[in-house]
Design brief:
By secondary structure, the chain is an all-alpha fold. The protein has three helices and no strands. The radius of gyration is 18 Å and the shape is elongated. The model has no long low-confidence stretch (mean pLDDT 86).
């Protein structure tokens, strides 16, 4: 067995767990557990598609805020201080990587959650 085998499993699980925590807090903040948040039948006490989308966007905005804050804390602990673009090439690369990961996480999670909430 090579020493590289499985070297991506732990970071991927850790990253996924962090995202799950952010989205769980977002779901709790938007009260996504209430019937109108997932029941599309207006006659049955649900809120329809507009209510479902509204709750997903509310929860997503809250989760995105938490994810941005967590990313800032992570960068602060990594560098030991507040950093910004233009300080050095290494910092720029790390900030661009963090920005791309943040954007990707938000877009893919939003797509998955909106699709799931509308069609299930």
């Amino acid at each position: 067995a090579s020493p590289m085998r499985g070297s991506l499993v732990a970071p991927t699980l850790s990253h996924g767990a962090g995202l799950a925590c952010c989205w769980l807090l977002g779901a709790l903040a938007s009260r996504a557990y209430e019937r109108p948040a997932f029941d599309i039948s207006v006659e049955g006490g649900g809120g329809g598609y507009s209510e479902v989308l509204k709750r997903v966007v509310q929860g997503g905005a809250f989760a995105t805020g938490i994810l941005i804050f967590a990313t800032q804390i992570d960068l602060f602990f990594e560098f030991g201080r507040k950093v910004q673009f233009g300080e050095s090439e290494d910092i720029d690369v790390r900030l661009l990587t963090a920005s791309f990961e943040l954007l990707s996480d938000v877009m893919y999670e939003a797509l998955a959650l909106i699709t799931w909430r509308l069609y299930l």
